[in-house]
Design goal:
heterodimer; A: Rossmann fold; Rossmann fold; six-stranded mixed β-sheet; 17 helices; 27% strand; B: 465 residues; mainly alpha; ABC transporter involved in vitamin B12 uptake, BtuC; globular
Amino acid sequence: MSTSHHKLEMRQITKEFPGVKALDRVDLTVDAGEIHAICGENGAGKSTLMKVLSGVYPHGTYSGDIVLDGEVVEFKDLKASEHAGIVIIHQELALIPELSVMENIFLGNEVVSHGLIDWDRARSLTLELLAQVGLSVDPRVPIKNLGVGQQQLIEIAKALSKDVKLLILDEPTSALNEHDSHNLLELLRGLKAKGMTSIMISHKLNEIEAIADSVTIIRDGLTIERLAKTNGDLDEDCIIRGMVGRALDARYPPRDVKVGEVLFEVEDWTVEDANIPGRMLAKSSSFRVRAGEIVGFAGVMGAGRTELARSVFGRSFGTYRSGTTRLHGKEVKMTTVDSAIKHGLAYVPEDRKTLGLNLLDSIRTTIVSADLDRITPHVLLDEDMEYEAAESFRKSMRIKTPHVNRGVATLSGGNQQKVVLSKWMFTEPELLILDEPTRGIDVGAKYEIYGLINQMAAAGKAVVLISSELPELLGMCDRIYTVCEGRITGDVPRSEADQEMLMRLMTTTTSAA
Amino acid sequence: MTALRTHFGGAGRQFSMLIALAALIAFFQIATGGKVLTPSNMMNLINGNSHVLILAIGMVMVIVVGHIDLSVGSVAAVVGIIVAIALRDWGIPWWAGLLLGLVVGALIGMWQGWWVAYIGIPGFITTLAGMMIFRGLNQYIGKSNSVPVPEEFQTMGAGYIPEFGPVTGFNNATLLLGIAAGAYVIWREVAKRRRAAKVGFAPDPLWVVGIRAGLLLAFIGYFTYLFATGRPGTSFPIPGVILVLLVVLYHTITQRTKLGRHVYAVGGNRAAASLSGVSTRRTYFFVMANMSVLAAFAGMMFIGRARASGPFDGTMWELDAIAAVFIGGAAVTGGIGTVTGSIIGGLVMATLNNGLQLMGVGSDMTQIIKGLVLLAAVAFDVYNKSQGKPSITGLLFRRRPRDDDSDSSGATAGGSGETGAMGADSDNATATSPAPVPEAEARQQPGLPGATQMSHSTPNAQKGN
């Protein structure tokens, strides 16, 4: 095949961050007029690759070539790549809720005549664009009045207004319901029929199988393989094998499993999105955890694992609709975070810096912050008790710091995570919910965190481990639940679980299992 | 004075301000030929500013939690007029008037706190409205007239502790206060050493303790002497006593109670605080309500000093209080700030006012200078943070390491156990997170085989000392 058939070629792209090679000689070839999918686990390097392509990481900060329509291009910023006809639509939509549809579509690209915005022309152009994406809304309606599905279409209309030649969609259907997803995929097919080339990043393998002409699989910053429909090897099984085909090595400390009685049960838990009425974050989910057991929750980003966990943890997310929780067989109602903590629940959030820590705080004050009553014998906090608690955790958790009076902001990611874990261990919980506890942490620190988790289980605590890394779940858990679109789709003991099976359950959009 | 005392050993920023305050006093003392450090001028300075300093105590909590209160002047004024009229027309005793004022303040505070905490209106807007509403109420209730207040209130606003005991040539009450303060300083050093021993840290070297305690004792001694040798019948003024008591109380609340911790937690990271079981609403409500109670108190002290409540009492007080808080090291974004720091900030402003006045500088120039000082103080902070450097004086006064780890060195940030650690000083702010690696896409290292090695080098920025 000669180069001229390729709309885009990215050759030997290597991108390094201090200490980490995010992309290692990645190749990507997209033919003209096709829909190309990029698959890979979270953290595999997909978004980094797209940022290289769109000039977010400008030319010179990476090595390798980008060849567009047979010519080597060097983008110095996002504007330059847009000028060349490359438009990215991100997972988090970049629309401004308060502005109208047409204002959003022409934001930064205003229709101007004689130095003033020509709103009449903008409006007629908007109507044309909306017709192209099959949307009939008033261009003057504010974006916030539209649903997510419609907003996604507005993004595409916005891209079309920029005379897009290569459309990149990052997880376009992750926030959409089935109906809207279907519409969007139909639109992509329609655009393809008109000659548009698209790249789609997606976790939903059934969608990929349905719509993509070819697939590139990326894993750990490397191109694993390129599958094409014409070769007949593009199916879910091949993709899964490519995505997870990594050998498990001894990255997980051994542990004695001593599982006891059922400690915590959740039954028929249903939660509605607080902002989007009708969108259910958890759909009558039930699960149980035994004392001494580590239970994993697997699912792609946005599947509803975090939402479920936080909703159970004192209803700190979404709007509670129905469901019961039982501790040691007795029903308990925990309507605030405070009451959840009092009942012995602990939740270590996925985002350390925005949800887990006050970065202005010191290590000492952070460790005791979730249970100040414990160091308040009378009216005042007892600072000796505070010091002793902080010191004992510094030693037992091996927090690397000269002094517990240091600010948590001075610590590395792994040590910050140990502080967060200490903070929750200090509350002496019975049930620990760990949400992505090793994200953004280097390998050595990860191993330490795994050891700490094992210790907690050995101490008879029930542990829920939410993770996007399947090897981590397989390495750590006794049992794994899979979650897809707010529904629990599987409950697999470790002995029966493997990555391909989990991946299949995680991407089962219709309820199975 | 407690403000200065308790913060020896505190965060760097407060030291810079303390040094600046001392330098300012020294400068004016020389420039005015010794008119600043005289008993009567010091008494004036305290009587004339304690109401703003009391406002600063409440304001720092409002600012730490992430709001601002513009209504304090108007609240002070409306409480003042209500109390003055009640005392005059209903004939209630002075203490009942005081109580009434505090109750009115609390009601106003609950009103404002409700809008902020439960309706979700930003403090800025709520209190901007309050500023108009309560100013109007003051003038409506008082019919824009001045209403005189009885003698007991005047004592509270500008009086002195009565003379008692043997004739020593000094004011006995002031002497007692000074001795008590000195004893507290010594007791605190002893307690700190005991705790260090108990928790297992190496205590501060004796020379550090000596210098620190010595400086403080000399300072207390000097001011005790100054206040005790005023003209007969004068002492350390009663507003000063009230101020010291309030500072001690609120310093304790902010640093040593659950409530105080919650204020810093909500201001520092609201989401993390609520995931740790803190009720952000209750915290907002308390802080706003408390501010109005303190404003009521300040208003009553002011009408005592002015001997009457008038229609223009309290104008611009909010700005003086806010300036004091920011000069005292609070962050506009919330989460950082201390009661003692704000008092020092307020004293800097007060000294500037006083010194410039004594030098015969007009109010026009005084305002310009005060504005520039506010800008410079905050710019100094911002610059230091962006440079990742603590202030020079902060460096000088940083504590020696006192941990027992053989493998670690580096200066400890924060300060004595009693102060500081909550409010990140410039030290904490220096160490921003290290790597610009986007977390989600940072590729995992393919497993180190049997990655048992855990000894990655200490990641903390080790700063020499």
